Input
Amino acid sequence: MNTMEIDKTFIADTYKRFPVEFEKGKGSYLYDGDGFKYVDMSAGIAVNTFGLCDDEWTAAVTKQLGLLAHTSNLFYSEPDAMLAKMICEKTGMRRVFFSNSGAEANECAIKTARKWARLRYGDDSHATIVTLRGGFHGRTVTTLTATAQDELHEDFGPFTPGFVYADPDDPEDLKNVVAENNCCAIMFETIQGEGGVHVLSKEYVDVIRSLCEKGSLLMIVDEVQTGNGRTGSLYSYMNYGLNPDIFTTAKGLGGGLPIGATVFGTKTADVLTPGSHGSTFGGNPVVCAGALNILSRLDDEALKYVRETGAYIRSELAEAPGVEEVTGMGLMIGVKTAKPAAEVAAACLENGCAVLTAKDRLRLLPALNIPRKAVEDALDIIKDAIDPEAE
Ligand SMILES: *Cc1c(COP(=O)(O)O)cnc(C)c1O
Output
């Protein structure tokens, strides 16, 4: 049996995979077993921040791998301490809890918000958290409950109590939901990634801010996809001038290895105490050594490149035949096409460009340092696949 057959026989059938098996990659290019070359506009779903097999990241990871791969959280370790320090210094936040995925980072944020409310009210009367329809926060039962998308909920009830949903385009709905429930937090993405690269308006985010500023609601920003330079700011809440009480991140922070981080501001920094949360692999030295390399390189120059490259791609696509709308910020780009997005994605892959979809849109999440040549290669293929007139 070949890989595809073995996979189909032995791996749980949860993924609709593209019919391609990549063998290796370098920078923004992937290669299959026949040596066919693909431009990578997916970066492993916003994970490979500086591309595939990036030399500096690989060196940082392999160096730590040769020193010490894992000790557990019963002992101190330099890479995770240094990574937490760097995250706090770059954001003004106070403390970090490390885990292994976005779902876990959000699970920790939810636990922290609940404990914060319990310390404040003495009971669980204010345990409810508001999330936004179309958002995505993970696949565990609780983060799935936080994910207000009916099609993902089917088959998996009963759900964790304590979540209420608001419309991401209707500030009045959000105000009503907050007024009608005893809530402790609003949790949201500034750009709903899985939800179709839907950018929250400044006006809407200002309503979230003012509701939180009244003091009894924590602001939790899910930066799992939008974080780590993706939108052209280090974290996307910075585009809106927010000061979250908690933000979570994962995907691109590790640059290719699994990590989750829940980052606490002043109000929440001391809520978790010994024994209240934990993770066997969280803060793993190898993963943190790689993340430290990634974060240290996300400087002003790198972020400027993200903004410029993203603006260029968006302007090129906005004028292409067959494009109905282009959304997103930086190198998190959604494209509504006249042709079905799945069809366009399949055609792109066939012609040597790996792209993603989200809802009814094409989604582009290239490496943040994608060279201009790779951008041009990708745009040629994508425009061709989108064009309703092209053969
Ligand atoms: C991917 C994603 C998650 C879940 O991350 P996992 O690492 O798959 O658990 C949560 N929130 C957002 C916004 C995401 O994009």
Notes: The chain has 13 helices and 17 strands. The two ends are 35 Å apart (CA to CA). The mean pLDDT is 97. The pocket of pyridoxal-5'-phosphate is lined by residues 101-103, 106, 136-138, 189, 193-194, 222, 224-225, 250-251 (CB under 6 Å).
